[in-house]
């Protein structure tokens, strides 16, 4: 693992970030915002990490998935409330407010998509 800035991955991260902001601000439906937004957040964190680390991409993807699962566990056990931190806006944005088993499935689907594309790129690289 090497700390190394990657502009391409950072630009992908920024693009996904802008898309997530647009979804959060302007889409109030029952599919794109709750499901596609959660799907994209795995890519958001993945490309953010890839912007600064040159390491095994599948291991980074797995680390992002584990991070997302930990966030859901924090929601399930209402850890922020336990430590009287639920009023902290930044922590509420990062940790979210409600647990959803569906989120775990969506995060896993995003992870599997990343793994698929990583293996596809590896097979088609000369």
**Strand portion, in percent?**
under 5%
Output the helix-strand order: EHHEHHHH
* Amount of helix: over 70%
CA gyration radius, whole angstroms:
16 Å
The global form is globular
Biggest sheet architecture: 2 strands, antiparallel
Report the total helices: 6
Number of strands: 2
Structural class: mainly alpha
Major β-sheet strand ordering: 1-2
**Count of domains:** 1
Describe the structure.
- The protein is mostly helical and 126 residues long.
- It has one domain (2-120).
- It is 74% helix and 3% strand.
- The protein has helices spanning 7-26, 32-50, 57-76, 79-82, 89-95, 101-123, and strands spanning 2-3, 53-54.
- The radius of gyration is 16 Å and the shape is globular.
- The two termini are 23 Å apart.
- 17% of the residues are buried.
- The model has no long low-confidence stretch (mean pLDDT 91).
Quick structural gist:
This protein is mainly α and 126 residues long.
Please describe the topology of this protein.
Elements lengths: L1 E2 L3 H20 L5 H19 L2 E2 L2 H20 L2 H4 L6 H7 L5 H23 L3
Antiparallel strand pairs: 1-2
Features:
126 residues; mainly alpha; 2 strands; 3% strand
């Amino acid at each position: 693992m090497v700390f190394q800035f990657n502009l391409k991955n950072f630009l992908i991260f920024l693009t996904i970030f802008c898309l997530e902001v647009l979804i959060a601000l302007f889409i109030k439906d029952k599919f794109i915002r709750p499901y596609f937004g959660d799907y994209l957040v795995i890519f958001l964190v993945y490309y953010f990490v890839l912007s600064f680390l040159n390491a095994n991409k599948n291991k980074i993807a797995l680390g992002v998935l584990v991070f997302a699962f930990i966030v859901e566990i924090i929601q399930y056990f209402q850890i922020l409330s336990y430590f009287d931190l639920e009023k902290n806006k930044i922590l509420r944005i990062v940790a979210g407010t409600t647990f959803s088993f569906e989120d775990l499935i969506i995060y896993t689907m995003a992870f599997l998509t990343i793994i698929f594309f990583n293996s596809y790129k590896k097979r088609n690289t000369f």
